[in-house]
Amino acid sequence: MADIYASAYVVLSATATEDCQDGFLQERPKPFLIQYAQHGQQFQEVYARQIETHTCECEYEKPKIDYALYKRGWCMQERFLACRIIHFLPNEILFECQAGRKCECDGASTERRGPNVVPIGGYDNFGGLQAAQEMDTKIFAHNWTRIVQEYSQMKLTYGEDSLPALSGLAACVEHLKPGKYIAGLWEQEIGYQLGWCINPTDDLTRRWEDPKNINILGPTFSWSSHVMGPVEYRYPSDYRFEPLCTLESFNVELATSNPYGQVHGADLCLSGWSMPGNDMIARYKGREDGFTRMYIYFDFGLCFRFDWFDFWKTEELENTVSWETVLCFGLYGYEYDDDEDCFGDEKYAVDALLVQPSQSEVGKYVRIGVVRYLQKSGFNDAAVASTITLV
């Protein structure tokens, strides 16, 4: 199916249609008649119509983009793969391709671009990957995670489709040699790609509708396995992040012959540096080693954001999990952006995985969350060399 959309000369999209019974050629609202007269002249008539699908020049005006086809996972892939697409909207017809957008009123060609303005998101990132002949691995990882971030906002009927509905996009960027594909992540710069989180300040909803009683389908380290969404990534400026872990080996058990499709299971063997979870909490409470800021995101949708004056949250955090069983495994280090408040003199931080021993596979670990903004000096003082296997 992905090849059909990618090979089509042009794709017609009933974008404003709610379902297959709705039809896509709808009567447009009648234009508004404006009459005016200048001194000594007859009345003149001007017709105006409201356009909701792009923004023109108003900074605070947002376009109407909450159409059903902008919310579905399979539809996102089809739209991204299409070389050219014509959207049938309530007020006009809009043409879209990687080179730009054009509509009947010509507003789309001059609109501001951004994640809250027009529904580009990962669309531009995918276009850049698809067109490039080669790319630095860090830049590739940045672009791929942008695509993942948008895709995680889409809805699916079946959880088993989480990877297949993105497989066409993955196949299209494989020419950039990012390594093997591991359940939604690429081998190169995998430490950075493991740093996703589920932010409960977003509108937490289930990404798939069935099965309703299963929250994780697949390896815990992959964003694609988790029903809660959307996921988000941290983007250090100018790609200035340094890996703290190394991928030693991995195994993927595919469910079909599609190397980018559904998996029955997967595991990663990572070497790097880790510290005990209860040591991390104790150091934060003691405030002796520079742990003055810490954001913890659990994969079940709970978040703790600690800054200077958030002591009252620590007891709740301590009771959330059994910290004596948790490892804090470093993923990558980075320098704070110039406009970020680093809450102290140090400007270097670490993002790390939170993992616990698997209850079903001896000697292996499952991911339970991620911690951000660990100050690097404190982490380096407490961390020891370790190798873990994630499932």
Automatic annotation (TrEMBL):
This is Heterokaryon incompatibility domain-containing protein. The lineage of its organism: Eukaryota, Fungi, Dikarya, Ascomycota, Pezizomycotina.
